[in-house]
Specification:
The complex is a heterodimer.
Chain A (H helix, E strand, L loop, with lengths): L4 E3 L2 E4 L5 E6 L6 E7 L6 E7 L2 E5 L6 E5 L5 E5 L8 E8 L10 E2 L3 E5 L1
Parallel strand pairs in A: 2-11
Antiparallel strand pairs in A: 1-3, 3-8, 4-5, 4-9, 5-6, 7-8, 9-10, 9-11
Chain B lengths: L3 E4 L2 E5 L4 E7 L3 E9 L5 E6 L3 E5 L2 E6 L4 E6 L8 E9 L10 E2 L3 E6 L1
Parallel strand pairs in B: 2-11
Antiparallel strand pairs in B: 1-3, 3-8, 4-5, 4-9, 6-7, 7-8, 9-10, 9-11
Classes of the chains: A mainly beta, B mainly beta.
Chain lengths: 115, 113
């Protein structure tokens, strides 16, 4: 079965640079989520999109932005990178039901290292 | 926001032993999932279980929504079961309107031969 596809799997950036992560959800899933997991931490919710509209926002820094495109893929843009942005970034998708997110499925993650 | 507490934080098992992991949550939930994060960082879905009991091979889970807890049972543990087990929930209730899956801190399981 098709899974959530994330790219790139690994990237290395210098401080103050910009990075873009891409996510392709499971076909027919209508909601995309982004999570950040620091070393030894649990995943923290950043932002979600339902049918291409922002649906919920968590602890996403102002330096980060995201959007979902007409083909349902999503991109997370991170600017003015800081050392503390080094983390594993997950994308997840689900098929939302009335009053319920449905089961979330996660991609393999993109590991960002900021030097 | 909703609070998710997992116990124990760390667990070391001999191969073949059984274990029970617990997840307590502070409010009603619409969604509860158990994940296994392997040493390579992948988050693997184990159970989608906002209520009731499910079984999948050596693993089973029970959620008692009215008492706000869930249990994950691992039987006949294997070294490949090592990793971190996360419980995650979405707050329920009228007008919750939130699509946030909130994670607990996890239980780090080490299975030794």
């Amino acid at each position: 079965a098709a899974g959530v596809i994330q790219s790139p799997r690994h990237l290395i950036k210098e401080k103050r640079e910009t990075a873009t992560l891409k996510c392709y959800p499971i076909p027919r899933h209508d909601t995309v989520y982004w999570y950040q997991q620091g070393p030894g931490q649990d995943p923290q919710f950043l932002i979600s999109f339902y049918e291409k509209m922002q649906s919920d926002k968590g602890s996403i820094p102002d330096r980060f932005s995201a959007q979902q495109f007409s083909d349902y893929h999503s991109e997370l843009n991170m600017s003015s990178l800081e050392l503390g942005d080094s983390a594993l970034y997950f994308c997840a998708s689900s098929l939302v039901r009335v009053g319920n997110t449905g089961e979330l499925f996660f991609g393999e993650g993109s590991r960002l290292t900021v030097l | 926001g909703i609070q998710v507490e997992q116990s124990p934080p760390d667990l070391i098992l001999q191969e073949g032993a059984n274990s029970t992991l617990r997840c307590n949550f502070s409010d009603s939930v619409n969604n509860l999932q158990w994940f296994h994060q392997n040493p390579w960082g992948q988050l693997i879905n184990l159970f989608y279980i906002p209520s009731g009991t499910k079984q999948n091979g050596r693993l089973s889970a029970t959620t008692v929504a009215t008492e706000r807890y869930s249990l994950l049972y691992i039987s006949s543990s294997q070294t490949t079961d090592s990793g971190v087990y996360f419980c995650a929930v979405v707050k329920g209730g009228a007008g919750a309107g939130s699509y946030q899956l909130t994670f607990g801190k996890g239980t780090k399981l080490s299975v030794i031969p």
